[in-house]
Structures are given as structure tokens and as C-alpha cells.
Design goal:
This protein is α/β, with parallel strands linked by helices and 205 residues long. The chain contains eight helices and six strands, in the order βααβαβαααβααββ. Strands 3-2-4-1-5-6 form a six-stranded mixed beta sheet. Helix 3 links the parallel strand 2 and strand 3.
Amino acid sequence: MSKALVLVRHGQSEFNARNLFTGWADPPLTELGIQEAHAVSDRLEGLGMRFDAAFSSPLRRARQTTEIILGRLGGPKGYIEDAALNERDYGDLTGLNKTEAASRWGAQQVRRWRRSYAEAPPKGESLRDTAARALSFYLRQILPCVMRDETTLVVAHGNSLRALIMTLDDLTPEAISNVELATGEVRLYHLAADATVKSLEILAP
């Protein structure tokens, strides 16, 4: 497929299942998360996808998902891991139940930390911070592969992928606050010769 870029959010992790802020914590996939990764593989295989290049966050939930997909579909012998694709660092929220966090800081404040573009939780990152590292890596490492017509897989996290989607879909900070990615969600982009988006297909879990 010409200039194809596939973004995948990892399958459900143990922290996702327990409704905890995960951030840079490193829990593995749950059994459901493993099933979700296999379901992603099934959908991509049904589209005839084969990957020439692959990138992953080094966090275990992303690596497990990447290995399941590449194990099924084949592709490069290895894949590139980089912390630029890590989930947003939730700082003091990491490991807390979301209800517990709302009780401690107030539901409205926690919502602002979660959904705003520029506001960061204590000792953590905002989406803007996450975008700074993720987009730089995208431009230096991922986009050149796509522009060489290498079908490219990126497996990462809700917020690092939202940072990429904001640029790919040309969304404002206000608009990106309404974008959610489910675990196991797939976004299949085809780019034009000028690196803008030619088409987008969203494959819901």
C-alpha cells in the first residue's frame, strides 16, 4: 500500500483494567489485552497488510502488542523502540485510581489535567510536552519511512498517539481534547506526496 501509516494503541494493560493512571508505569497486557492485539492482527491481515518498518514505545504493553502483530503479519526482523513514543508521564497521578485522584484533587481539576493541551499534573507532562517529543521523533524517524513507500506500523499509547493524530488530522488543541483512542484501536492513514493525509480509515476494536 502506497505511503501507508498504521497507528495502533496497545491492548488493555493491567492498569487499564483497574482504572489506574498508567503513564510511565510498565504493567503487562491482560488476557483481554492479548486478545485485542490478536484482533488487531486479524483485521490488518484481512486488509493484506505487511510491514516494512515498525516502531514501538519501549513500555511492555506496547512491545507485547507489536510482537503479536508482527508475529502474525511478518515484516522487519526487528522494530525500533524509542521512549519518545512513551505514554504521557502522569507524575503524581501515576498508579492512582481515577476515582481516588478525583477525591484528592477534585474531579474538575483532574479532568483538566487529563484533557487539556497545556496543563500538566504535578510532576508530570501535559499533552503539549508529550507532543514535543513524539512529533520530533515522527518527523525524524517515522515519516521518512512512510515517504519511501514503506508500510509503517507504530504501536504506542493513547496520548502519544493523540499527539501524532493532532498533527496528521490538523486538529486544534481544543479539538484534540475530544479525541479518544480505545485499547486495540487502529488508524490507517495513506499520505500524499507532500506528507499530508490522503485518506484515513479508523478500525474500532
